[in-house]
């Protein structure tokens, strides 16, 4: 009899624990939101690399070339505060053909980042930088002045998407979603997508540029109770 009562007690505890677990269980869902913008700004990096047997000569030539590039850009209405030094280096150039490496000269590199607030001038600015002496142009990216607002909209959409998915998953197992217990912001990203004929160029421009679209993405993780 005592053994039977013990078994019944254990069964009651198991059933009670399972019931409490069911009532307190949760569902976790990841939601995403996306907002697409037409860019109204851009930036690119432009650099000068010079070499000479004398380090001072290489530095002097590099400085003169970079001053010419900056002058060409500012002459086309780029503000000085929109030109920022990104990278500067000086290092020796070696000749490895002999029994031991030998320094034959020095290489100097100077790179600046240029913010472009008038996209119509972008092709002209790129060409002007190269014509002024730049021998490195890269990292062309597009942005929008509305990206912060767009991210807030994407974040709201991501939270709604996560809650919707949580409700669907709860429904799929015969349950009902309850109150959200937590909503956590995950990674965000700004993605440039090229779009054909997104930017109409005048025939006088030598460098064809397409500004495409900027896509702002937000992601959240929601933990929702089930009942």
Question: Can you describe this structure?
Answer:
- The two termini are 38 Å apart.
- Strand 3 (83-95) and strand 4 form a beta hairpin.
- The strands form two sheets. A four-stranded antiparallel β-sheet has the order 3-4-2-5. Strands 1-7-6 form a three-stranded antiparallel β-sheet.
- Helix content is 35%, strand content 40%.
- It has helices at residues 2-24, 55-75, 122-131, 147-172, and strands at 26-37, 41-52, 83-95, 102-116, 136-143, 177-193, 213-226.
- With 227 residues, it is α+β, with helices and mostly antiparallel strands.
Q: How many strands appear in the DSSP assignment?
A: 7
As a percent range, the share of helical residues equals 25-40%
Q: Please state roughly what percent of the residues sit in beta strands, choosing from under 5%, 5-15%, 15-25%, 25-35%, 35-45% or over 45%.
A: 35-45%
Biggest sheet statistics: 4 strands, antiparallel
Summary, kept brief:
With 227 residues, the protein is of the alpha+beta class. Helix content is 35%, strand content 40%.
Summarize the helices and strands and which ones pair or pack.
Layout lengths: L1 H23 L1 E12 L3 E12 L2 H21 L7 E13 L6 E15 L5 H10 L4 E8 L3 H26 L4 E17 L19 E14 L1
Antiparallel strand pairs: 1-7, 2-4, 2-5, 3-4, 6-7
Helix pairs in contact: 2-3
List keywords for this structure.
single chain; alpha+beta; Translation Initiation Factor IF3; Alpha-Beta Plaits; 4-stranded antiparallel β-sheet; 3-stranded antiparallel β-sheet; 4 helices; 40% strand
């Amino acid at each position: 009899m005592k053994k039977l009562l013990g078994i019944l007690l254990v069964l009651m505890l198991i059933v009670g624990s399972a019931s409490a677990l069911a009532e307190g269980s949760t569902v976790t869902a990841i939601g995403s939101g996306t907002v697409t913008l037409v860019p109204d700004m851009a930036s690119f990096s432009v650099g000068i690399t010079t070499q000479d047997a004398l380090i001072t000569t290489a530095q002097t030539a590099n400085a003169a070339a970079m001053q010419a590039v900056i002058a060409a850009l500012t002459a086309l209405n780029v503000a000085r505060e929109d030109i920022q030094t990104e990278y500067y280096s000086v290092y020796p150039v070696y000749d490895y053909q002999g029994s031991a490496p030998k320094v034959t000269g020095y290489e100097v590199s100077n790179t600046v980042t240029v913010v472009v607030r008038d996209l119509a001038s972008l092709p002209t600015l790129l060409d002007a930088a190269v014509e002024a002496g730049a021998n490195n142009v890269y990292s062309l990216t597009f942005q929008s002045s509305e990206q912060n607002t767009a991210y807030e909209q994407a974040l709201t959409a991501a939270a709604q998407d996560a809650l919707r998915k949580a409700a669907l998953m709860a429904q799929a197992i015969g349950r009902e979603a309850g109150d959200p217990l937590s909503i956590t912001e995950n990674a965000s990203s700004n993605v440039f997508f090229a779009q054909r004929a997104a930017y109409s160029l005048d025939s006088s421009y030598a460098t064809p540029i397409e500004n495409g679209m900027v896509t702002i993405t937000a992601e959240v993780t929601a933990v929702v109770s089930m009942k």
